[in-house]
Structures are given as structure tokens and as C-alpha cells.
Amino acid sequence: MNLNNLRDQIHANAAVKGFWDNNPSDQHFLMLVITELSEAVEADRKGRRADIQDYKLLSKASIERTGNQDYFNEVSFCYHIKDSVEDELADAFIRLLDLFGAREVYLNEDVFDLKTIEEYAATYQGKSFTESVYHIVRFISATSRSIETSAVTPEIMLLEILGFAKHLDIDLMWHVEQKIKYNQSRGRMHGKKY
Questions:
Q1: For residue range 31-82, what is the model confidence (pLDDT) as tens digits?
Q2: Using an 8 Å Cβ cutoff, are 165 and 88 in contact?
């Protein structure tokens, strides 16, 4: 997985959408990551999981109808994926990559191998959903004033989310890809104040 390229792509889109116009602090963006993780808890409480099979069926039908292999079915995404546990975890991952892109943080991609991700996934055995998210939030909250001086590395923050997703049998990178497509279709600041 080429996370440094993905980081740059995500940050470029966020900059175009206006999220970096006022150069917000690291704490601002880390709080937004925590918010996405909280939204994952709410999605879990409501039993909201992505319906990937129906999403793919509708997307395939749209591609066949339009003849455009890159066609993105926004309606299908909103109905079958958006606001699900998978979507909110993808949002948290995307927000971290956006921050790392803004601060030009180089990610050591060698640590993102399957064995390491499985080791992180094992740490979630026996934990409830809320306990697992709290575990991730602790790592993100351990960042002092900036990610550059944090005792918790950017790789660890990402690996915690990847490990939790793996534990839940979620293909997080597929969901990140779908959310990136959706975000590209959204308006300035995604219609929000910040």
C-alpha cells in the first residue's frame, strides 16, 4: 500500500475543498479524527454496517448503463455505505492522512505489512467495540502539541485503525477508496463550518 501517495492525494483534495484555508492546528484535526471514531461508535450502536454487495450491484448497473468504468454512484454510496461503521473508520483514517499530508509527514510504509496489521488486530480480541475505539482514541490523544513531537508515531495511529478494522473483518482500504471518490463529489468544506 502506497500511503505516502494516498496521503498526498487526500490532502490535495481537502485543500481544494477549503479545509486548510486557515491552517488549523494539529489538535483541531486530531479532534476531528476522534469525532469520526465517535461516529463509528454511534453507527455500531445503531447496527449500521455497510451493505457492500448491494452497493457493488447498483454500481455495476450504473457502469453498464453509462458505459463509464469510473462512474461513481453517489446515491448507492449514500444508501449502502455512508454513515456505517466502515465509512466512519475510513473517515478517521482519511483525516489522519490529510493531517500528515498537510504537515508533510513521511510515513514508513515498510511497517504496514499484513503480519504487523494482524498483530495490531490481535490487541482488540476480547474488547468491546467501545473499548476498542477508546483504545485508539488514547493513542491519538497522547499527541502533545504537534504530530512532529508526539511520542506516538503517525504509523502507530494508522496501524491502530487498520488493526481494529482487520479485527472487524473490514477491508478498510476499499472503504477509504470509496470515500475518496465520494468526497471528490462534495462541495466546499463538505457543507460544514469546519
A1: 999 999 999 999 999 999 999 999 988 888 888 888 877 777 788 899 999 9
A2: no
